[in-house]
Design brief:
By secondary structure, this protein is α+β, with helices and mostly antiparallel strands. It is built from 7 helices and 8 strands; from the N terminus they run E-E-E-H-E-E-H-H-H-E-E-E-H-H-H. The strands form 2 sheets. The protein has a 5-stranded mixed β-barrel. Helix 4 packs parallel to helix 6. The longest helix is centred in the middle third of the chain and has 19 residues. The chain is elongated and about 65 Å long.
Length: 247
């Protein structure tokens, strides 16, 4: 039976109690994407267990290893090693909630055991940008860019530079975005679509996002657009971190 020792950088996306003294932790890794692992003996009262629990916090990078069997029947592994890395993003307040939102998206949307090295880099950049963000608008811009990176990784990216007819987006027009068909220019009365099935967005905001150019006046449109795009993939279960913002 062939087995390979796997070593990965990782961040904790989710954790819960498992049996008497262990935790079931979902890690985010560059080469294996979302990886579920049993971390044994970290819920005891010993000093060592308490130190390891402190490592298993959001936004704290860790180095993990496990032995991977080619005949493994599930995506659950048992960790052989857990150590803190020098990478840590000290998020506080609303930036921390934003970071938890990114974690929730990854936990719910990412496929297990798939290589996502570019998205892993985008995630670290997003956490860094949240750590230095000075206000809600800057935080919102970080979230929108990461949402687009995640959708692209999953194969759900949408076009923001040309419309349904393969014509360039015009800044002075409005567009109806349909999640399956793409962007339709005004006048919408000529479109044989129920406008309730889409969302209207300005050409200017579409072009600015395509160029990754920050625009405060576009933040509301971008938020509505990405919420609309993500909704089919998230299903009916609400995003838990949104309630933290509301409270």
């Amino acid at each position: 039976m062939l087995a390979t020792d796997i070593e990965q950088q990782a961040f904790v996306l989710h954790r819960r109690s498992y049996r008497e003294t262990s935790l079931l932790v979902t890690f985010f890794t560059p080469d294996f994407g979302k990886q579920n692992a049993v971390v044994k003996g970290v819920r005891s009262s010993s000093k060592t267990a308490q130190v390891k629990q402190a490592w298993l916090q959001p936004f704290q990078g860790v180095n993990i290893s496990w032995r991977d069997n080619v005949n493994r029947q599930s995506d659950l592994v048992s960790l052989r090693q857990l150590e803190p890395s020098h990478i840590r993003f000290p998020l506080g307040g609303e930036s921390s909630i934003c970071g938890l939102y990114l974690n929730e998206l990854l936990y719910r949307l990412l496929y297990p055991s798939l290589e996502v090295s570019q998205l892993f880099t985008e995630y670290q950049q997003a956490l860094y940008d949240l750590a230095i963000a000075e206000n809600r608008n800057q935080q919102a811009w970080v979230l929108r860019k990461f949402e687009f990176a995640l959708l692209s990784e999953l194969g759900y990216a949408f076009q923001t530079e040309v419309d349904y007819y393969q014509q360039p987006i015009q800044a002075d027009k409005k567009y109806l975005f349909h999640i399956e068909l793409g962007l339709f220019p005004e006048p919408f009365s000529q479109i044989s679509l129920d406008q309730n099935q889409g969302i209207v967005v300005s050409g200017q905001c579409l072009l600015l996002f395509a160029q990754k150019t920050y625009c405060e006046s576009c933040l509301t449109e971008w938020k509505r657009l990405f919420r609309y795009v993500l909704m089919p993939y998230l299903g009916h279960k609400p995003i838990q971190t949104r309630s933290l913002f509301q409270s």
